[in-house]
Amino acid sequence: MLPPALSHPDDLTNLANQIKHWAVEFGFADARIVAPDLEQYKEGFKKWLDNGYHAGMDYLANHGDMRFHPEQLHAGTRRVISLRMHYLPQSVETVERLKTKEKAYIARYALGRDYHKLIRKRLNQLAKKIQEVIGDHGYRAFVDSAPVLERQIAEQAGMGWIGKNTLLLTPKAGSWFLLGEIFTNLPLPVDQPTRTRHCGSCSACLTQCPTDAFVEPWVLDAGKCISYLTIEHKGPIPVELRSKMGNRIFGCDDCQLVCPWTKFAKHTEEDDFQPRHDLDSEDLITLFAWDEETFLKNTEGSPIRRTGYENWRRNIAVALGNAPSNKETIDALKKGLVSSSELVNEHIHWALKQHQQ
């Protein structure tokens, strides 16, 4: 049953237009509405799991078929409002920072405040704005924290298309944005899906991945992906991949940086996405010197907390092994041996060997 405010046939159409207008007011770059049909993705997802391409992310195999049935995540769901928000600050370097091997490279979405907190807050603000106008309605907001096929939903909503690098691409902004969803019981009019994936014959993201993590177009082996290795992976980083990681210590943007659609990227105006503690330009040696207390203090409210202090130092040790060979780097590594865990020391010893070659 619809709220009384939606009694006229045109009311839902007007509300959908208002929602898109409000979304921009709340800082989103775009909002689209879809009645997702996700069953078609089940076979490919199961094959991906069966091949072990989810690596150590066992949680991706949980929840049964729930991710293909939005109404199981939120009872009564009839539509999904798909939204995106730009996160790349204009002042932040990307390619040049990767070339400066003594500097740390952190995925650009992780330089400021944790996007989960920012986007979830805005999603709930938008949902409550809808509630102010029409009264109570059933909704639930999601930001990369539940079994939601957000890129597939966004593609079906006409937000863009899933590129060969498995990211959502749009001709308006490349892929430098984050997604969020509002599941709602409102039967809003839907937007037209994206019919064509405009990657054509381009394979830059596949061939220029530092660790050759793409098995084929649209298929990523997470076990080789630097983002997985530096954030989700526990334990030693495979030796054969360490030299390929360069100075990337948290996440990786390479498949975005080489994508031709990146030239259309829009920059964020959100203060919360601005770099904290010079994380966009800090020296590896400086970050390696952080003790755990400093790490916890400087990553409070940051997505970097996810990797944990030990893995943070493990990642930096590998990057220092790939850094220019000089006395400062070697001294920092040797000093680190005194107070590090067995896991970190293994990577420090590897790094020191790189400077003996």
Automatic annotation (TrEMBL):
4Fe-4S ferredoxin-type domain sequence ranges:
186-219
Enzyme Commission number(s) from the entry: 1.17.99.6
Extract the coiled-coil ranges from the record: none
Quote the record's binding site residues for tRNA.
Answer: K234
**Broadest EC class?**
oxidoreductase
So where does [4Fe-4S] cluster 1 get bound?
Answer: C199, C202, C205, C259
Q: Gene3D superfamilies, per this entry?
A: 3.30.70.20
Q: Which residues form the active site?
A: D144 (proton donor)
Judging by the UniProt lineage, the source's domain of life is: Bacteria
Q: Could you tell me which pathway this protein works in? A: tRNA modification; tRNA-queuosine biosynthesis
This protein's assembly is summarised as: Monomer.
| Function (record text) | Catalyzes the conversion of epoxyqueuosine (oQ) to queuosine (Q), which is a hypermodified base found in the wobble positions of tRNA(Asp), tRNA(Asn), tRNA(His) and tRNA(Tyr).
Query: Which PANTHER family does UniProt cross-reference here?
Result: EPOXYQUEUOSINE REDUCTASE
What is the protein named? Answer: Epoxyqueuosine reductase
Give the species this sequence originates from: Marinomonas spartinae
Taxonomic lineage from the root: Bacteria, Pseudomonadati, Pseudomonadota, Gammaproteobacteria, Oceanospirillales
